[in-house]
Amino acid sequence: MKVHPPGPPLRAMPGLLRKLVADRLALMQDAADLGDAVRVNMGPKKMYIFNRPDLAKHVLADNADNYHKGIGLVQARRVLGDGLLTSDGEVWRTQRRAVQPAFKPGRITRQADAVAEEAAKLVALLRRHEGQGPVDVLHEVTGLTLGVLGRTLLDSDLARYDSIAHAFEEVQDQAMLEMVTQGATPGWLPFPAQARFRKARRELHRVADALVAERVARMADGEQPDDALSRIIVAARAQEKDAERERQRLREELVTLLLAGHETTASTLGWTLYLLEQHPEAREGVRAEARAVLGDRIPEAADLHKLTYTTKVIQEAMRLYPPVWVLPRVAQEDDEVGGYHVSAKSDVLVCPYVMHRNPRLWEDPLRFDPERFDPKRVAGRDRYAYIPFGAGPRFCIGSNLGMMEAVFVAALVTRDLDLRMHPCHPAVPEAMLSLRMRGGMPMTVHPVS
Ligand code: HEM
């Protein structure tokens, strides 16, 4: 006999649907309050929400082949096409194999210098706002993460393309709008929204084409940079027979790397700097560690494992505010998850945001406490209770780079500056493709007292 997870009573559905548009995190939390496994009937479609480590493990790792990328990401396909984040099956496997060597752990040493230099630039940029009005720190760290991505994976200076961040915001807004009106086709969007979406997509394609053209010219001159961009070009040439398909493929792969690599790290940094502003002891802890390990200099690769307290702060920030707040999948075949039946074609969501705040897994879950990530306490916990980088074969390819960026930037900014949140600005998380702070992060900059 098929056993189904509990679901909300019919009368609760209008409220839930309203939340799907207005407050997706509250919707997920409401669902989780019904249990760790929940089934919501959305008309003929079923949506399962799993918030227990063993259920997450089944979907993301043990039976990952049965779960393709799902809602939200499906909409993002209009921009990302079949890039590494959104593709499935054999297409994904081939892409991951092609680009994986560019992310080898050994590369971190070389990448560290670029990250540290970009972090120092950010400090200098913020310092110019000392004694002035608030600066949107989220905007500035987004610029930093794009700069790092350019230097570490594409060997290019992305500062020339300052339109990228805005274009990504635009396409995400539209993708989200489509997601919350599931089943609607792109054509439903009001004309101005469609026009903005197309303009943003054109801009991203223009940047991707320019990056590829520059690299192809360098390769023609005999240069052989062994970074992600070169690997993507070589793979596309080998696999695509037709020039138009090759161009399309290159755009999709590059735009994917740009999106996946910068938004998430910027979100991590934004929330970390906000939490440090709110928690003076943690801020002093990070500052003392940065002074002890770095003195006055900028970090280098060997410092990473010495900045242990800062690392715990970042981990705790990603627990409370996981940049990828939901991992959406679609079941390909019927399955059984923890004894519950899941029918083919239904949406399956694993929600790190909710699981990371589940009181059955975390003591006093809303409290910011970096010591939760003390290695002894981590060892006593289910590995799948904490999944900011996902799990299983689709585990984040850039996790080492993202962590290093977050640790270096948090250490340098905290050592050198005091950031204060604008008192009238509420810190409200907004669940877009990544977890943003609504309205950005206006902060004033002060010298360290
Ligand atoms: C702190 C920063 C980051 C966080 C929290 C993060 C989080 C994640 C998560 C949760 C996934 C899995 C998505 C899923 O299973 O549906 C993922 C995948 C991915 N991430 Fe990251 N990420 C970060 C940094 C980066 C960086 C720096 C890059 C560099 C390009 C990157 C590139 C990717 C790519 C390409 C994928 C798709 C991998 C695949 O499906 O094979 N990420 N990331």
What keyword list fits this structure?
16 helices; three-stranded antiparallel β-sheet; alpha+beta; 449 residues; single chain; binds protoporphyrin IX containing FE; Cytochrome p450; 53% helix
Describe this structure in words.
The protein is of the alpha+beta class. It has one domain: Cytochrome P450 (Cytochrome p450), CATH 1.10.630. The protein has helices at residues 13-22, 24-34, 53-62, 73-80, 89-99, 108-127, 137-154, 164-180, 191-220, 228-239, 243-278, 280-294, 308-320, 352-355, 375-379, 399-416; strands at residues 37-42, 45-50, 67-69, 135-136, 327-331, 335-337, 340-342, 347-350, 417-421, 429-431, 435-437, 442-447. Strands 1-2-8-5-3 form a five-stranded mixed sheet, sandwiched between helices. It is globular. The model is unreliable at 183-187 (pLDDT under 50). The chain binds protoporphyrin IX containing FE. Protoporphyrin IX containing FE is lined by residues 84-85, 96, 153, 257, 260-261, 264-265, 268, 318, 323-324, 327, 388-390, 394, 396-398, 401-402, 406.
At a glance:
The protein has 449 residues and is of the alpha+beta class. The chain has helices spanning 13-22, 24-34, 53-62, 73-80, 89-99, 108-127, 137-154, 164-180, 191-220, 228-239, 243-278, 280-294, 308-320, 352-355, 375-379, 399-416; strands at 37-42, 45-50, 67-69, 135-136, 327-331, 335-337, 340-342, 347-350, 417-421, 429-431, 435-437, 442-447. α9 packs across α11 (243-278), α11 crosses α13 and α11 runs parallel beside α16 (399-416).
